[in-house]
């Protein structure tokens, strides 16, 4: 994710990438080649202690983020962070209290909140075109990352990735979660559910279902995706489908029927670095996703995942099939020329 954010900042006129720290020597060398004007460090102390640096980007895994966020706040720096903020909910809420007591901005990469298609749909809903929003349906199934591919601090897929869609549903509903029931599936006999569906209600009466799983055609000749949002109202429907390349919005309202297809724009990092940079310059939040929203999504997605576990997920598939998929993925590369197991930039 750091590479993606640096690339977006290099394209933006708002940012100067002054320094980079990474634990990996190979990554530091890559940074030297791509950022000849930046200082490259094998220890982060110099970055935190440099008063000329206004903001730090923290793109580590969840277990490393709390200490780094606290150091950034203590040295009077704004923070751009990946989610979740920590590896457990209690620590996340402690960080929220510290962040909200600070005068620093902390933006969290809930990338869906920067998406043009969600904003188009929400404007359509706000215009009364579908009546009262009644049902939110979200599905995100891809041949995504597998067990044993190194994301343990982020949790299983319904937390690591699914918290994005828990956040999206809450954002649309403009309400807190009320009730839910979840069912999981232990694909290939792995200990954690790698597919989960949760359904339930919000406090305001809107109902939802969320389906997430990295189980969708790993060994298919042409790998498929099934990703959509349906916002069903009392009078009309607004929906979106995407394939990670293009996104299509279809709006069926009482006065208008509209369709729009445009680039999916991946993680929308260009939007995030723009709104975060402008917010720092303006001294107020101009629309970046905040820590509290991230932690609510993290807490609820953990709770839904645990509900799926309590409901005794059945087992399908074998460990031998899982090893076959893992071997296949070892020979795939992503857009950075890295093993596909690092491809969370696209898949979550």
How does this structure look, described?
This protein is of the alpha/beta class and 348 residues long. It has twelve helices and 14 strands. It has helices at 2-11, 25-34, 45-48, 65-74, 89-100, 116-126, 157-160, 162-173, 269-282, 291-310, 319-330, 344-347; strands at residues 19-21, 39-41, 55-58, 78-81, 106-108, 133-141, 177-187, 195-202, 207-213, 226-233, 237-242, 246-252, 257-263, 315-316. A nine-stranded mixed sheet has the order 13-12-11-10-6-9-8-7-14, covered by helices on one side. A three-stranded parallel sheet has the order 3-4-5, covered by helices on one side. β11 (237-242) and β12 (246-252) form a beta hairpin. α8 packs across α10 (291-310). The longest helix is centred in the last third of the chain and has 20 residues, at 291-310. The relative contact order is 0.16. The model is unreliable at 341-348 (pLDDT under 50).
Give the DSSP E fraction (strand runs of 2 or more residues): 15-25%
The low-pLDDT segments are: 341-348
β-strand number: 14
Radius of gyration: 20 Å
Cα separation of the termini: 11 Å
| Number of helices, where a helix is a run of at least 4 consecutive DSSP H or I residues | 12
N to C succession of SSEs: HEHEHEHEHEHEHHEEEEEEEHHEHH
The helical percent reads: 25-40%
| Content-based structural category | alpha/beta
Shape: globular
Mean pLDDT: 94
Strand order of the largest sheet: 13-12-11-10-6-9-8-7-14
Biggest sheet overview: 9 strands, mixed
């Amino acid at each position: 994710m750091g590479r993606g954010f640096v690339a977006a900042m290099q394209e933006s006129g708002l940012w100067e990438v002054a320094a980079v720290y990474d634990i990996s020597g190979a990554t530091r060398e890559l940074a030297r080649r791509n950022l000849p004007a930046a200082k490259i460090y094998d220890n982060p102390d110099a970055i935190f202690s440099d008063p000329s640096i206004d903001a730090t980007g923290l793109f580590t895994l969840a277990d490393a983020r709390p200490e780094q966020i606290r150091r950034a706040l203590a040295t009077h720096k704004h923070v751009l962070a990946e989610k979740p903020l920590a590896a457990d909910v209690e620590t996340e809420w402690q960080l929220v209290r510290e962040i909200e007591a600070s005068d620093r901005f902390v933006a969290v990469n809930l990338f869906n909140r920067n998406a043009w298609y969600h904003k188009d749909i929400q404007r359509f809903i706000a215009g009364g075109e579908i009546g009262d929003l009644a049902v939110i349906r979200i599905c995100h199934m891809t041949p995504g990352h597998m067990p044993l591919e190194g994301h343990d601090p982020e949790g299983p897929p319904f937390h690591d990735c699914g918290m994005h869609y828990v956040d999206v549903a809450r954002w649309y509903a403009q309400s807190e979660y009320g009730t839910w029931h979840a069912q999981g599936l232990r694909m290939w006999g792995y200990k954690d559910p790698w597919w989960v569906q949760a359904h339930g209600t919000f406090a305001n009466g809107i109902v939802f279902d969320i389906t997430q799983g990295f189980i969708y055609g790993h060994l298919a000749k042409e790998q498929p995706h099934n990703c959509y949002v349906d916002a069903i109202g009392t009078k009309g429907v607004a929906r979106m489908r995407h394939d990670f390349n293009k996104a299509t919005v279809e709006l069926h309202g009482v006065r208008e029927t509209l369709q729009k297809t445009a680039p999916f724009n991946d993680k929308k990092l260009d939007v995030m670095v723009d709104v975060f940079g402008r917010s720092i310059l303006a001294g107020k939040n101009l629309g970046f996703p905040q820590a509290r929203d991230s932690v609510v999504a993290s807490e609820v997605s953990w709770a839904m995942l645990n509900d799926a576990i309590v409901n005794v997920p059945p087992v399908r598939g074998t460990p031998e099939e899982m090893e076959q998929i893992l071997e296949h993925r070892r020979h795939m590369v992503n857009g950075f020329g890295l093993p596909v197991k690092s491809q969370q930039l696209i898949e979550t």
